[in-house]
Amino acid sequence: MAAEAQQLTVPTEAELLQGQADLWRHSLYYMTSMAFQCAVKLGVPTTIHSLGGAASLPDLVAALSLPPAKLPYLRRIMRLLATSGVFAADNAADVVTYRLTPVSWLLLDSVAVDGHPNQTPIVLAATSRHCIEAAMGLSDWFQKDVVASPFEDLHGVTLFDGSMAEQDPEIDAVFNDALASHDNSGFLTVLRECGGALFQGLESLTDCCGGDGTTARAVVEAFPQIKCTVLDLPKVIDNVPADGVVNYVAGDMFKSVPPAQAVLIKLVLHHWSDEDCVKILAQCKKAIPSREEGGKVIVIDIVVDSSSGPTHEAELLMDVAMMVMTNGRQRDETDWSEIFTKAGFSDYKLLKKLGARGVFDVYP
User: Fold this and answer.
1) Which domains does the chain have, with CATH numbers?
2) What residue stretches are annotated with the O-methyltransferase C-terminal domain (predicted)?
């Protein structure tokens, strides 16, 4: 017997008016992104900082050397970005002044805030025409029987493997700077909150896809007894000067990981499919001793959690971004548990969630 049809309730007039406003908001979200990009390219956050942390529109127009006639237009951009939380607006006086928020603090030139490097490259990469055009092609991509991501399908190149550099060296540099900013952000918080549990007692550590060694050097500074090795692709390692603190190894994590008591893999796996994550983690498992001998893999990555509050939307946006630009995805704890098991690990602990990041100890 067919299920009884559910009676539909027509929205009220007030609900439809709110729905229309929400429709406008969703359709025009890209305007916020473009206004954000505009402010970053103009240097508004750094200019507010240089003016003592608060600036009026005339102050900004003068400091940025903008034509005075653009002041009314800048007002509209700043009003939107203040509403979106990028800046804070002080309306107490006759003249509105704008201040930095935690978002804009992350965009200051030559200022690392509590271990968070400048995140400007992330804004420029995410709002580049390459990403926007790939996202614009989603509906076409869904109708194609292709394995490639929308980005690769459209542009014919894959991020971070060198093919982008051959096509457009300038934007490739932006993407690589964005990757470094993303990977190195927030690690000092991890050290403060979880450093003892993660690294106390370790004698050796391999940082898988450790880039220029920023994370490994931070570990050695906090725990001098640990001998750290950084593994990354030859095109990365060849450009890193020897520092006498960290050992650098050029290689491929799909083929081999330098042996150590523990392997760290931070903000890497979300770029890869589940199948590739299993392959990578299996190589990490080969590189470490038994659990009884202190062997473990430390995974730091996004953990999607519907109870995350305001962070949850960012987690989901990052997930769709991975779908558009790579073959990876963001995962909830159940997803991570399944991948750890398939890679041959016996157990794991989610030590802490710091913002959108989860910090895992994964045991052989």
Assistant:
1) 28-105 (1.10.10.10), 120-181 (no CATH), 186-363 (3.40.50.150)
2) 138-346
